[in-house]
TrEMBL record:
Keywords annotated in UniProt: Hydrolase, Membrane, Metal-binding, Transmembrane, Transmembrane helix
Pfam family, one: HIRAN
Domain of life: Bacteria
Domain HIRAN: 2-109
Membrane-spanning residues: 43-60
SMART domains on file: HIRAN
The protein's name in its UniProt record: HIRAN domain-containing protein
InterPro entries recorded: HIRAN
Keyword match Hydrolase: yes
Coiled-coil segments: none
Length: 109
């Protein structure tokens, strides 16, 4: 199954700069469950994978936000039950003057 999700929290902790510098359509995304998150026990962090020195020095993961709460609850149940979920950046919008970038990912499971 394939579905889209808009990422929340892209304007916090310098994530907007990471997105503007590294985000590209089709870029691989890693989802990280945060069951001990103090704001939401169903939290799913979203990281983009950035090659270091063209991949010669491995990769770096940078957090760009979270799956929105309404989508995270059912998705966290799938992840916790062992369903493999992969994701890629579907689109992003980060023009100058906008308070925070808008990133949409495509989820496959």
């Amino acid at each position: 199954m394939s579905t889209s999700a808009v990422i929340a929290g892209t304007g916090f902790e310098g994530r907007d700069e990471v997105i503007k510098k590294h985000c590209k359509n089709g870029l691989k995304v890693i989802l990280g469950r945060e069951p001990n998150n103090k704001y939401d026990e169903n939290a799913i962090a979203v990281f983009i994978v950035i090659p270091r020195l063209f991949g010669l020095l491995g990769i770096s993961k940078k957090k760009i936000g979270y799956i929105k709460r309404s989508r995270a609850k059912p998705l966290s149940k799938k992840i916790d039950s062992g369903v493999a979920v992969s994701a890629r950046v579907k689109s992003f919008y980060a023009p100058e003057g906008r308070e925070y970038p808008r990133v949409t990912i495509e989820l496959n499971y």
